[in-house]
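Example record

The entry below shows one chain as it appears in the dataset: sequence first, then structure tokens.
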Amino acid sequence: MRNWCTIIIRQIELLALLGLSMSLVGQEVPRMHSFDKSDYKGLYQNWDFAEDCKGNLYVANTAGVFIYNGFAWKQVVLNYGHIPRALHLGKDCKIYVGGYETIGVIDPSADTLTVVALENSQIEDSEEEIWHVFEDRSAIYFQSFSLLYKYDYEIIEKITPPNNIMFGQYLDDKIFIPEIRGGLFEFDDQTFTKLSEKGLPPEVKIVGVEILDGELIIATEFHGIAWYNKDHFEFINSSFTRQIKDEQINKMIKLQDGRIAIGTIRNGIYITDDFIDFDFHINRENGLSNNTVLSLYQTQFGPLCVGLERGFEIIDIHKPGIHYYDSKGQLGTIFSTIWHNDQFYLGSNQGLYLKNSLGEFELVPGSQGQVLTLLSYQNELIIGHNRGTLVLDAKQELVHVSERTGGLHMQVVGRDSILQSTYTGIILLEKIKGSWQEVHVVEGSDQLIEHFLYSNGSLAGIQKYKGLLHYKLDKNFTKVEEAQYYLPQTSIKREGLVDIFTKENGFNIVYDTLLYCVSATEIFPYSFEDKQSRIESESDLNQVYSLFSKIYNSLEYGQLLNQNPLSDELVIQLEEGYMKIAMAEYIELEENRDIVVEAVSVQDIGHVDIESDGQVYNANNNDLQIQLALNRNLFISKTHLKFKVSGFIEDWQDIPENGLVLLTKLPAGKYDFIVDNGEQIQSLYKFEIKPPWYRSTLGFLLYFILGFTVFIAINGYYRRKWKREKMKMEHEKKEFIEKEAMRLKAKNLEHEVNFKTKMLANSAMALVQKNKALDELKDLVKNEFKTNDHTQKQNLYNKIVKIVDTNLSSKKDWEVFETNFAQVHKDFIQRMKESYPDITQGDLKLAAYIRMDMSSKEIAPLLGISVRSVENKRYRLRKKMNLTIDDNLSEFLMRF
């Protein structure tokens, strides 16, 4: 039993501080991540949560079950569009789903995620709607408002309670199930045993049951919180419980650290450990999307999931640090914060704010404008303002001490002396006769120096446009004697994390995660090795560098609002508000940033086994989709998550927002998919793309065989071709020899024919000449004998004439001629005889002479007749040969 005296005493002590407690902690809350329906592409209302064994988050939304792996969302729709109302992770690592006429299961290991109805669930066509699922040691219970369905991983048993019921819980080996309008049942193996209703108001609605400090506690919708003390209920009467009675409690769960989270319909969430006070009240005023809480669930790794009427929230209640969410934008952009005289001040573009005893920020009158920096000096607060420099004195009155606009950074450099950078250069402020005033501008100093450190006559700083700088100042701060600059590749921005340390003969400047050396002679960035050595050897530098690295890689990356990074408490600028956390806690804060491969899909194959490393894929399966997931911590910053693929993408690339990396047209080779989560480099998936068959060992063997075959074929072809060419050449040679022989023979024949023709012509001419001579002789003798003795002369004449006539018509001459003619003109005479049987010997002679292309004049002596007689004979020959008037006798005989 609780020590009620202690509670009462504590309650009295806290009543006086109730206003402070209720307001102060109600403003600063744990970090939250908001999810709107546009994020998960569903509808507004979220009814329940669960996680699978890999840490993926399942959300029962009005539009279906949504699954989040830290990068991407998947949607699983119930049959007939039914609404999932309840989710539960079973011992078999499957997610069990309840809804209208639905008792089903999602197998996270399946390639396609669907809700599969359990066999013989007995809920079909029952009009029952499952609103809650819980599990004891042996079975899962699906609960509607009128029935229980018990599933022992084999069969489903329907159990009917005595009355309508609310949501049951398995606590300390017992099942407690509230009656919907009345008391509380303890259920054990078909038996409902009702606890004593003593102390309960009539018609009370119990909306939550938990065990705290070994005792049973209930939350009611409108009557607050009560303990069950043996045989009666006793309601806790505190300012906290009185307040939440009117806010309609809807959910209550016990957190892993023993605290209780209570969700209401009207005013958000409360986190408490004793129901007397609360640690946090989170509602719409300080960051919650809306005030209506439909479901509460704490993940196995700590964050609290809050299902809302509109969207849902993830609250990091397990982590140190508190956040102020300026959801209404009343503070504006925050530039600086400071604790001064035990009060928290905040400077923004709206002015200077003081956090009062109620935890509310009040604007300091007269400070309107941009408060850029704050410095606490003794009992006064020095304010760098866009209108100049102001001082908030011990009387909480503002005094304007300099008209020089834009006070960016300040440092105390001596008793009652402050150096301040402004929009127009560095000025010296001094307290003279109790009042601060501007003494002079440091001649030669630059404008807009965001941050600086002065030491022993030297000043190192950062200027937005010129980069890192080093000044040597005279001892009275009147002028810059020497100046040098270094412009980094990374542009200077006001929200960057900057701190400056003195070192021997110079300074070290930490800017985000970079480290620079500044001396009187040079400014340069340290190499990686020198940076590590320097950080390890200097504790303050190490601490600040570690801090900056952590902030830079975190979700809350922003400017440090407190001027000294080594303060016990850090204040970090957020997009809307700020974060407070103890320095030691922040440094030790560990975020699990492990990234895992959730699925790999390969072209023409689909999903493949990712458990076995070194998968080998064919050349045509060279397009891969790699879906990444966050392991256990789904809500880390993804800003600095990188990947590369050794052998394909050698430079670090940002991981896509949805975690889906597409690798297309991968050439043959071995690959290693590597990620950098900001804290370590991980090799996640190794695989190999085989070369195409034509580049594989088999391909090269085929190439060899093909090449050898082609070689043999070509060799055979050329051998056959050579053989054919040789035979052709031999044949051509033979033909050439034969043709040449024939040509020579023809030539010889031609020579012979020509010779015989010539001889024939000569013979014919000889005959002509002989006959001509004989004719002349005949004529001469004839003439001579005209005057001599007639008888004697006549006898001599007759003999001579006879001899001449005999020679003129010698048959022997014709035979010789005919023989020679036949050798030249072959069978001409024979063919003439065959073609023209009526032809005479004289006609043959005429035809032969005509064929020899002899004229009538040349033929006449040979025939011993006149030319006219030759023409007559030609005419008679034409008639015998049946030639027409158009036929040329000479041409005809030459062709014959």
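Notes for this example: The chain has 15 helices and 61 strands. The first helix runs from residue 4 to 15.
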